[in-house]
Design a protein that fits this description.
Its EC number is 2.4.1.-. By secondary structure, the chain is α/β, with parallel strands linked by helices. The chain has 21 helices and 28 strands. It is extended.
Length: 777
């Protein structure tokens, strides 16, 4: 019989046995470390820094605690607390402006041309005109001990010129390479260096660098042998130009200055070749072939009878450059020939690709029926509903049926006439080219009908009905023939625009006639709430121009002054918001007398006051308009000095007596108003642009001063400046209905726009019909 004690322990025996076995197994599996196998790993701090860290450290616990089990303790003394840099993890991370910079992606090619002070105003300009539009960056270098551009010798416009203080040709080449390395080593992968006594086909240089790896140490050009017992290799002829990779520049430029004194050569190109072979220990010399790309050049010096116009086109197809050239005429002739060869090659490539597309179309589900015309161009846009249907515009050689407003027929503009002439000439030329092998002569009699539309997927499409005279061996005949043409969309380019901000101060000019006195009351109430009571009141300066006629001018400063109430209101605003001393008036105003309140006469008065600088931004407004911050910001962003003037299209309310839905607050609805495309009252422009256009117009109107009343600001900028006149619908510009005074003394264009604005601003056709025939509902 088992003892009672063992019976009680019988339940926990398996547990005790399991713990015992587990401990035994863990001791058996534990690694045995000998004393000789221990290692002490030191930190990477040097001894001085380590000693400094130990001296400045403060123990948080007694030394005796290191041998005992760790127990958390509360440190009351602030001097004993560990010092923690709370700002260490709060430092702002500076990101690159462009993702390409952060990823290390560089631009492809920077080009340089070495010229001289004698040819910088001739050959260098020709190089800039023929090469500049092909290159991402083009620089010109030459050496001079003196200032080259002084007196009558002006620096050529539009050229980036760097002048070295050296006149030795070898040192000029070295300084050029060093400048490129110092300024563009981290920006570009390839460097092209040429001389202005040669012609360079820019498209061929781009084609070469676009198909090569950037990791190679490459020195590419037209090789010439170095005749030397010590050095065996090739250098690139300077007249043909050469290409260097960034990898090679990084390898040799830090040591290249040693070549100036250590290497003697007769020419800069040979010096560079010897230097590169020396610094790379013979690994890198000039080559003319790399990764199937070949650098070829035409040596015009070898053939004195060489004629650019009659030479074989195969000679120009793979050539990168041609040398030497002595005059700008030779440069332009070579450019013309190279461009013709490039166009022919492009057409052949297009034909080849079209044939490939045609052959592959048979393997598609739709077959050849799925091919669009022309082959390789996107198919026509397919509308999903009737609102997306693109209409065709009818035209002939002089007029069109697509006119603004409700005009049924209007004359083509000069640009439209030129477009029609070009497209008709192209159609006749293609027909003559097609039927000439059949001994058929085709002559144009006239354009019977024309249709065009802009397809966003394809470009501008044309359908022309041409009346032609066809001459064959048996006689002549006249027939009508329809042709389809397409002006396809080309490569999309970003147009560079000057930088503008939303912090520019706006000088608002508000002309007010006697008929608009009541509208000024509402305008001032709105202006006080939107501007004077806001934090941006200092960025908007309003100047009011009170316009008096001949009869009203006699009442100025009298009790029956038509603007008495308005001037009192301005005085109240001055008392309320003009508390600071020596501060300009909150809303300055002036009075002028004129029977014809034209925009130009009003602005002339403003300019003569000389209170506004040339860089002042003007906003010519109307008292019937509601102003707001969105409108001001659009004015700042769309008016660019020396570049663009902004003429917003306002949303104008209909006449309240005709449109019953019109309310006090202007709402953009089809039943309450419309965008008045005939209104040019509001505009944003810079004072300098106005003065330049006004001076040009003054030269034209010296004999007839009355012309100033026949032109408005829109016509002034269109006819007397190079500004881009930006015209766009502006939902932030809302205006109340007004009946314009269309003076016959104004120009025909201004009177016509005034009358059409009055006619279309009354109401919708339905509202007008309801007003005319109230009993017909």
């Amino acid at each position: 019989m088992m003892p009672r004690g063992l019976t009680r322990c019988k339940g926990i025996m398996p547990t005790i046995l399991g713990l015992t076995i587990g401990l035994a197994l863990s001791f058996l599996r534990a690694p045995v470390i000998e004393p000789d196998e221990c290692r002490i790993y030191e930190t990477s701090l040097d001894s001085a820094n380590e000693a400094l860290a130990l001296d400045n450290s403060v123990p948080a616990f007694p030394a005796s605690d290191e041998e005992e089990d760790f127990e958390p303790q509360i440190i009351v003394d602030p001097k004993l607390k560990p010092k923690v840099d709370l700002e260490a993890n709060k430092k702002k991370v500076v990101r690159s402006r462009y993702i390409s910079t952060e990823l290390g992606i560089r631009e492809r090619l920077v080009s340089s041309m070495i010229t001289s002070k004698d040819t910088v105003s001739s050959l260098a300009i020709a190089q800039n005109k023929t090469l500049g539009h092909h290159m991402q960056k083009l620089l010109f270098f030459f050496g001079s001990h003196e200032q080259p551009f002084k007196g009558k010798n002006h620096q050529p416009a539009g050229m980036n010129i760097v002048v070295h203080p050296e006149e030795d040709e070898i040192r000029i080449l070295y300084q050029t390479l060093y400048y490129l390395y110092q300024h563009y080593n981290e920006v570009y992968d390839w460097f092209f260096v040429g001389y202005d006594n040669s012609y360079v086909a820019g498209y061929r240089v781009n084609e070469i660098v676009n198909h090569m790896s950037i990791t190679r140490k490459l020195y590419l050009g037209l090789p010439a042998r170095i005749h030397d017992e010590k050095i065996d290799g090739y250098y690139c002829k300077q007249s043909a130009g050469f290409i260097m990779s960034r990898a090679l520049m990084m390898a040799v430029m830090p040591e290249m200055n040693k070549c100036l004194s250590g290497i003697q050569a007769d020419s800069p190109d040979e010096w560079l070749g010897r230097c590169l072979l020396t610094l790379t220990k013979g690994e890198v010399g000039c080559v003319n072939t790399e990764e199937v790309q070949t650098y070829e050049s035409i040596n015009l010096e070898n053939d004195q009878q060489f004629d650019v116009e009659t030479a074989s086109s195969k000679l120009f197809e793979k050539a990168v450059s041609a040398f030497p050239v002595a005059t700008t005429t030779e440069v332009y002739k070579l450019h013309k020939r190279f461009s013709e060869v490039e166009i022919d090659m492009t057409y052949r490539k297009i034909e080849f690709l079209q044939e490939e597309i045609k052959n592959l179309s048979a393997k598609t589900p739709q077959g050849e029926d799925g091919l669009s015309w022309p082959i390789g161009v996107n198919p026509p846009f397919q509308p999903s509903n009737r609102w997306e249907v693109i209409n065709w515009d009818y035209f002939d050689s002089t007029h069109t049926l697509t006119c603004p407003g409700e005009i049924p027929k209007c004359e083509l503009s000069d640009m439209e006439k030129k477009d029609v002439h070009d497209i008709v000439a192209t159609a006749v030329s293609r027909l003559q080219e097609k039927y000439k092998p059949q001994n058929m002569e085709i002559d144009l009699i006239k354009l019977e009908n024309g249709y065009k539309r802009f397809d966003p997927q394809r470009g501008m499409e044309y359908m022309l009905d041409l009346k032609l005279r066809v001459t064959v061996d048996s006689g002549q005949t006249e027939l009508s023939h329809r042709v389809d043409l397409l002006r396809p969309l080309s490569q999309v380019e970003i147009i560079p625009m000057p930088y503008v901000t939303e912090t520019t101060k706006i000088n608002m000019i508000l002309p007010v006639s006697v008929d608009e006195a009541e509208a000024l009351k509402v305008f001032l109430d709105k202006f006080e709430k939107k501007v004077l009571m806001s934090k941006d009141k200092d960025s908007i300066l309003l100047t009011i121009i009170f316009i008096y006629g001949a009869a009203e001018a006699e009442k100025v400063h009298q009790k029956d002054d038509p603007f008495t109430v308005q001037k009192e209101r301005l005085g109240a605003l001055e008392v309320k918001y003009g508390s600071q001393e020596n501060r300009p008036k909150v809303i300055p105003w002036m009075s002028i007398k004129t029977d014809i309140p034209s925009q130009l006469r009003i602005l002339d008065v403003i300019v003569r006051t000389k209170k506004f600088t040339a860089d002042s931004l003007f906003f010519l407004a109307s008292p019937h308009a509601d102003v707001n911050n969105d409108l001001f910001d659009r004015c700042r962003m769309n008016a660019i000095a020396g570049w663009q003037a902004y003429f917003p299209v306002p949303f104008t309310q209909f006449n309240k007596e005709i449109a019953p839905d019109v309310k006090e607050e202007i709402e953009i609805k089809g039943s309450t108003g419309h965008f008045d495309i005939y209104s040019f009252d509001e505009t944003c422009f810079f004072n300098s642009d106005y003065m330049a256009a006004r001076s040009k117009f003054a030269q034209k109107s010296q004999k007839n001063q009355d012309l100033i009343d026949n032109i408005d600001l829109y016509e002034l900028f269109m006819e007397n400046s190079e500004l881009h006149v930006f015209r766009a619908v502006e939902p932030a510009l809302k205006r109340r209905w007004m009946l314009r005074q269309c003076s016959v003394k104004r120009g025909d264009g201004a009177v016509d726009r005034c009358e059409r604005s009055n006619a279309e601003g009354l109401g919708t056709r339905t509202q007008l019909a309801m007003k005319l025939f109230p009993d017909e509902t």
